[in-house]
Each structure stands twice: as structure tokens, then as C-alpha cells.
């Protein structure tokens, strides 16, 4: 008898530990100032938090997402996901570990030769072991949740900006990751759409909350109240905004 297939919520991974914080930045040099080690970026996320890091184009805040995914290595310091130093993992282990992290890069990162529906399906088809019917069922659910059914057959160049961004967020959570990293996710969108997308990004089944980390040059006013914490990058350091 074959082994039972794992659900989206029950996938297990050989790296890191669920007891560790979802994401920790340790002594990151955002300003390329090795002669001034006191100005380092440090931040630790708690499971279920929604944390925004805000900084202008020259602050280095925009690099934090790529550090979290191990796509780039900081000049000094490190990003730690679920207890694992992501940049130090062997290549194939890194690919597996990234399944725990949903990622929306600045812009939308959609593949132009695929329809919006196929863009959402991409991680499910190539990074999971689910049967075709399971994949299609999950994609249909996401297209409904994100109000994309009417635009499903469009390619990105044919779709409006809002639908492209909805597609990108849906794709980021397709594998039901424990953590979602969003880079400037709401630029150019209405406040109402930003609220809707952030709510979807953080929601899991049965009332559970996903950890959400986003970076931006500024925040849409409508989502500020949804944040657990807002952190500003000031001269390379993390300064928490107080109410």
C-alpha cells in the first residue's frame, strides 16, 4: 500500500524547526558601512505577525526580501528562517526549504507566456507531489478567493494591474506557506484592494494566521491598522514605530 499523500497544511521539511521564529535578521549591513558596525539591521518575527519594514530607495529595505529567500547574501550578517541560515543551505536543500516561504517580488514576477490561472498553478505543478485533480481544485479555489475567475484565461499583458497583483499574491500562497514575503505589494492599488490582498495573504484554514513580512517605501494608509508592527529603516537600523 502506498504512503498517504500529505495535505497542504501537513507538509514536513527536514530543515529548521517550527519552534524557531519564522524570520530573523541578524546584524545585517544595509548601508555597506563596515567601518560603522553599530548601524546594523536586527529584527525577529513572531508567528502570525504582520510586520512592515518601511524605508526609502536608498535605505536598503528593498533588499530584505531577497536576503530572506537566500537569493542574495548580505555584505555582513545573515537571515535565519525557522532556525536555518538560509544562505548557507546547499542548493537543493534551499529549493525544498523555500516551499515554506511565499514570495512576491517587486512588481509581480508573472510569466508573460502563461495565463493568470497557469501562473497561480505553477508552484503547485512543479513544487508539490499532488495529483492533477488536487492541483486544479486548489487553483480553482484560489481564483475564486482572489476574484480572478473572469480574468483566468488572460495573459499578464492583457490583464489590468489589480488582477496581475491579485494573481501574484495568490501564487505566493498557493503552497500554503508558513511565511509570506511581499516586496512593495500595494504600489498603485486602491486602499480597499490593499486591505483585501493583505487579508488573504495572512489567512490560513480554520482561523489560523500566516506570518506576513512586507517591505515598502511607504504604506497605504488603509493597511496601517492591520500591522502588528511597523519598522522604519533609519541609517541602517530598525526603529519600531510607536503609536
CATH third-tier fold name: Rossmann fold
Supply the CATH class: Alpha Beta
Q: What's the number of domains?
A: 1
Please state the average pLDDT score: 87
Task: Note the total helix count.
Answer: 6
Structural class: alpha/beta
Beta-strand residue fraction = 15-25%
Strands in their spatial order, largest beta sheet: 6-7-8-3-9-10
Estimate the helix proportion, in percent: 25-40%
Please supply descriptive tags for the structure shown above:
globular; 243 residues; 6 helices; single chain; 10 strands; 4-stranded antiparallel β-sheet; alpha/beta; 19% strand
Structure, described:
This protein is an alpha/beta fold and 243 residues long. The protein has a single domain, classed as P-loop containing nucleotide triphosphate hydrolases (Rossmann fold). The protein has helices spanning 64-68, 91-97, 116-126, 132-145, 161-172, 191-202; strands spanning 23-28, 41-44, 50-54, 78-81, 84-85, 101-104, 179-183, 211-216, 229-234, 237-240. A six-stranded mixed sheet has the order 6-7-8-3-9-10. Helix 3 (116-126) packs across helix 4, helix 3 (116-126) packs parallel to helix 5 and helix 5 (161-172) packs parallel to helix 6 (191-202). The longest helix is centred in the middle third of the chain and has 14 residues, at 132-145. The relative contact order is 0.20. The model is unreliable at 1-16 (pLDDT under 50).
Amino acid at each position: 500500500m502506498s504512503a498517504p499523500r500529505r495535505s497542504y497544511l501537513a507538509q514536513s521539511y527536514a530543515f529548521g524547526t517550527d519552534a524557531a521564529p519564522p524570520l530573523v535578521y541578524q546584524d545585517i549591513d544595509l548601508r555597506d558601512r563596515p567601518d560603522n558596525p553599530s548601524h546594523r539591521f536586527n529584527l525577529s518575527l513572531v508567528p502570525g505577525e504582520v510586520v512592515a519594514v518601511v524605508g526609502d530607495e536608498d535605505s536598503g529595505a528593498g533588499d530584505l526580501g531577497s536576503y530572506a529567500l537566500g537569493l542574495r547574501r548580505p555584505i555582513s550578517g545573515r537571515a535565519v528562517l525557522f532556525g536555518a541560515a538560509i544562505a548557507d543551505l546547499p542548493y537543493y536543500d534551499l529549493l525544498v526549504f523555500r516551499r515554506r516561504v511565499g514570495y512576491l517580488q517587486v512588481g509581480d514576477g508573472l510569466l508573460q507566456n502563461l495565463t493568470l490561472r497557469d501562473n497561480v498553478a505553477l508552484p503547485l505543478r512543479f513544487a508539490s507531489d499532488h495529483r492533477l485533480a488536487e492541483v486544479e481544485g486548489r487553483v480553482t479555489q484560489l481564483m475564486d478567493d482572489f476574484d480572478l475567475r473572469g480574468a483566468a484565461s488572460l495573459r499578464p499583458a492583457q490583464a489590468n494591474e489589480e488582477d496581475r497583483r491579485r494573481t501574484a499574491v495568490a501564487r505566493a500562497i498557493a503552497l500554503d506557506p508558513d511565511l509570506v514575503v511581499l516586496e512593495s505589494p500595494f504600489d498603485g492599488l486602491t486602499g480597499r484592494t490593499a486591505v483585501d490582498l493583505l487579508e488573504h495573504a495572512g489567512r490560513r484554514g480554520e482561523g489560523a494566521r500566516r506570518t506576513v513580512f512586507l517591505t515598502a517605501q511607504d504604506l497605504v494608509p488603509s493597511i496601517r491598522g492591520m500591522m502588528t508592527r511597523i519598522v522604519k529603516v533609519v541609517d541602517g537600523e530598525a526603529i519600531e514605530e510607536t503609536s
